[in-house]
Specification:
Layout (H helix, E strand, L loop, with lengths): L1 E4 L4 E4 L9 H8 L5 H9 L4 E2 L2 E2 L11 E4 L16 H4 L1 H4 E4 L3 E6 L15 H8 L7 E2 L8 E7 L2 H12 L4 E9 L8 E2 L3 E5 L5 E5 L9 E8 L3 E8 L6 H8 L13 H9 L7 E10 L4 E6 L4 H15 L1
Parallel strand pairs: 9-16
Antiparallel strand pairs: 1-2, 2-5, 3-4, 3-5, 6-7, 7-9, 8-9, 10-15, 10-16, 11-14, 12-13, 14-15, 16-17
Length: 320
C-alpha cells in the first residue's frame, strides 16, 4: 500500500493486502483515532472517493484502487504502552519465528493478549510498540491470560484472512501441554462435552458443561508422562471454545494444576509445595500452512522455568 499525503487531502493506493476489504473497515483501521461516526459521515457525504468516484461503505477494494481521503482530524493516541518497560522489551526474546508476513511468539503467562477489562495494554499493543513500522499487526487467535506458549500474529491482512480460514477448516494444529490432577485414563482420547459460556455480574466469564444448550466442543488427549499424583497430558483442541481445555479436563475429574477458576484447591496446594505458582497450561506447538511461503510450518515453544522446574521435581519424587 502506498500513500501520498498533502496538506489538504491524502491518497492511498491499494495493494493485495487490502484486496476485497470493505472501504468502511479499511478506513476504521487506517484512520486510527477517528470516531466511526466521523468515518461514516465522510463516506455518506461523498468526501471519500475511489478512482474519483463516490462509493458506498460496503464497497470492496480492488487492486490498485486510489482512495481519496479528505482532511480529517485524528486524535492523538496516548502512549499507553511504555516502550522501555522490561516486560515489553523482554518480548523480543520470546519471538520464536518472524518474517515479513507473520510472528510466532512464546506468550508469557500472566500477560493478556490484548488490553481491556482494566488492563491498559496486552501483548498485541506491546508488539505494536516494538514494531511501529508494522501498521497491520493483528492476533490470529487468542490464549487465556495465564496460559503460555505459541501465539500467532499476522502482519498482513491477506495473511490474516488465510490463517483464519485454516482455523475455520480445522487444518491448523495446536497442541497444549497440561499437568492434571490424578491418573488420566489412557483410554480417554476424545472429550466432546458441549460448553456453555456464562458471564457473571462482575463481568467474569465462566464456562460450564452443557450438552443441551452448549456449543459442540472437541478436544483430543494423549498421556505424555505419569507422576505419583498427577499426569502430563497433551491436549489438542479441534474446536476453539473459551476455556475449552480447562473445562474438558475438569469435567473428567482431572483439573489442571493451579487453575484458579476450575481447579482443585487440595491438588493446587500440593503443586505449590513443588514450586508451581501458575496455571500449568502451555501452547507447546503450532502447525500451519504459511500462505506466502506455501510450506507447512511447525513451531515449538519451550516451557518456562516455572513449568520445567515443576516437572523436574515431580520426576525426582517419582524416582525416590
Amino acid at each position: 500500500m502506498s500513500e501520498k499525503t498533502g496538506l489538504q487531502v491524502s491518497f492511498v493506493t491499494i495493494n493485495e493486502d487490502h484486496l476485497g476489504q470493505r472501504i468502511d473497515n479499511f478506513l476504521i483501521t487506517h484512520l486510527k483515532g477517528v470516531p466511526k461516526s466521523a468515518i461514516y459521515k465522510i463516506l455518506r457525504k461523498g468526501e471519500v472517493r475511489v478512482n474519483k468516484k463516490r462509493i458506498k461503505p460496503v464497497y470492496k477494494l480492488q487492486l490498485d484502487d486510489i482512495i481519496r481521503i479528505p482532511p480529517i482530524k485524528v486524535a492523538e493516541r496516548e502512549e499507553f504502552v511504555p516502550s522501555k518497560l522490561d516486560k515489553v522489551t523482554r518480548l523480543e526474546d520470546d519471538i520464536l519465528f518472524e518474517d515479513k508476513y507473520l510472528i510466532v511468539i512464546n506468550k508469557p503467562s500472566g500477560m493478556a493478549v490484548h488490553g481491556g477489562s482494566g488492563l491498559s495494554y496486552g501483548l498485541i499493543e506491546a508488539l505494536r510498540v516494538l514494531r511501529p513500522e508494522e501498521r497491520n499487526l493483528e492476533l490470529v487467535h487468542r490464549l487465556d491470560r495465564d496460559t503460555s506458549g505459541c501465539l500467532l500474529i499476522s502482519k498482513r491482512r491477506s495473511v490474516l484472512t488465510s490463517l483464519h480460514e485454516q482455523l475455520r477448516e480445522k487444518t491448523m494444529e495446536k497442541n497444549y501441554w497440561a499437568l492434571v490432577d490424578g491418573q488420566w485414563d489412557g483410554k480417554t482420547k476424545n472429550v466432546t462435552e458441549g460448553l456453555r459460556k456464562n458471564t457473571l455480574k462482575s463481568g467474569e466469564r465462566v464456562v460450564r458443561v452443557d450438552n443441551v444448550e452448549g456449543k459442540p466442543s472437541h478436544t483430543r488427549f494423549k498421556v505424555l508422562e505419569r507422576f505419583n499424583e498427577c499426569s502430563l497430558v497433551q491436549a489438542s483442541p479441534v474446536t476453539g471454545r473459551t476455556h475449552q481445555i480447562r473445562v474438558h479436563t475438569q469435567c473428567k475429574g482431572h483439573p489442571i494444576a493451579c487453575d484458579d477458576k476450575y481447579g482443585d484447591q487440595a491438588f493446587d496446594a500440593g503443586m505449590r509445595k513443588v514450586g508451581l505458582n501458575r496455571l500449568f497450561l502451555h501452547a507447546h506447538d503450532l502447525s500451519f500452512y504459511h500462505p506466502k511461503n506455501e510450506t507447512t510450518m511447525r513451531v515449538e515453544a519451550p516451557l518456562d522455568k516455572a513449568l520445567s522446574n515443576c516437572l523436574l521435581k515431580l520426576r525426582a519424587a517419582k524416582g525416590s
